[in-house]
Amino acid sequence: MASAPQITAPETILSELSAIVGEDKLRTDQDTLHSHGRDWTKAHEPAPLAVVFPRTTEEVQAVVKLANALHFAIVPSGGRTGLSGGAVAASGEVVVSFDYMNHISDFNPVDRTVVCQAGVITETLQTFAEEHGLYYPVDFASAGSSQIGGNISTNAGGIKVLRWGMTRDWVAGLKVVTGAGEILELNRGLLKNNAGYDLRQLFVGAEGTLGLITEATMQLTRQPSNLTAFVLGVENFDGIMKLFNRFQSEMDLTAFEFFSEQALQKVVAHSGLQRPFESTCPYYALLEFECLNDEVAEQAMALFEACVEEGWVLDGVMSQSIEQLKNLWRLREDISETISQWTPYKNDISTIISRVPDFLEAVENLVNAEYPDFEIIWFGHIGDGNLHLNILKPDNLDKTDFFEKCGKVSIGVFEIVQRYQGSVSAEHGVGLLKKQYLGYSRSAEEVALMRQIKQVFDPNGVMNPGKIFD
Predict the structure, then answer these.
(1) CATH number, domain with residue 358
(2) For residue range 34-57, what is the model confidence (pLDDT) as tens digits?
(3) Residue 85 to residues 159, 343, 415, 443: CA-CA distances in angstroms?
(4) Residue 316 structural domain
(5) Contact, 260 vs 377, CB < 8 A?
(6) What is the pLDDT of residues 118-140, one digit of tens each?
(7) Domain for residue 281, yes or no?
(8) How does DSSP assign 247-280, residue by residue?
(9) Structural domains in the chain (count)
(10) What predicted TM-score, i.e. pTM, was given to this entire model?
């Protein structure tokens, strides 16, 4: 029987880390440990041993090799905007932060690619693309703080998936450090490469459990022209789906989102934004398209009027300027930040688009039956079948009791997910919060293969242990 690895004294680990990254890039103060040892979730308290801030792939490699030699665990840290606990360091791990690996280089206007270090902020890449007459289309509320490495590690989706897909669709190449400390350069920006397994895609969505992404070659595309949005009020969720089918069949939409009246009320009260129109409606659809010419505008208005005549739409507004477009989008994009003050219990679930109305109704009926006093906030990406269920904590209920109650009802929610052959995590990842529910979306055989893949890339189990599965 193999003997258990010898535990290394923390002082030795800290001394060796300091020798790799420098004394100024090793932090052990409580403020840094607390801020960099967590993500946006509040279910676990951070307790890392230290935070290191490497500046090169070689320094990252040295840290990983040290982890294997001295038997300590590593948790990667990007913008810390995750919602699954994937970046939480709660058990004395060493956090590897990519805050100082934030450079953009090697822009290629012919291939429309650019090389980003893992710590590049999403919005920085979007701005860089715009300055060069191009577009990086993966977008979400946390674009101003999330980092490219974290986006890739969670395969971030957001609000433009309907037209442009997930993060994995824009990763042309990766430089990674495996859990064993090997540096791999994967795909090298090639559009066509069928020379064996595409290891690059294994690291997309792996949540740092196989290794650390240090650099990514990102694909860019042309800028969209004159993006225009409708916000339409509807009576019921079935009407939203009819709207989606009608517009999607006749126009190329760039986004199709929805949110509830409860969500709108909270955003308006929190942000000072105006309601889109005077009418109060149970649900709202936000759809976006490129208004390339007057003909497209007329077609959009004709579809709107037809939907009103069918009784699917109660009221609506179409953006007439960039500023109005931004404000209409804020009604949807500001929801997460607004409701954070209620310590929401979040479920990020999905099914195929055609099943969404029955799916949502089944989940809502379950939660209302179990906890009629809990307020539910719905929003999501109808265009890709992704719903965000947010249960708000009552002011008079302790956080621990609240999460315990929500955890119990989650079993019923995930049984519904399983019945509808959906996913318990559409875009936020599994992390700590969803790992006990992974079996509702993945077979035992799939999970066993995942474990074997992790063993190949991370033989000593130093990379983000306890995330996705134990």
Answers:
(1) 3.30.70.2740
(2) 999 999 887 789 999 999 999 999
(3) 22, 14, 22, 22
(4) 227-336
(5) yes
(6) 999 999 999 999 999 999 999 99
(7) yes
(8) HHHHS-EEEEEEEEHHHHHHHHHHH-PPPSSS--
(9) 4
(10) 0.94
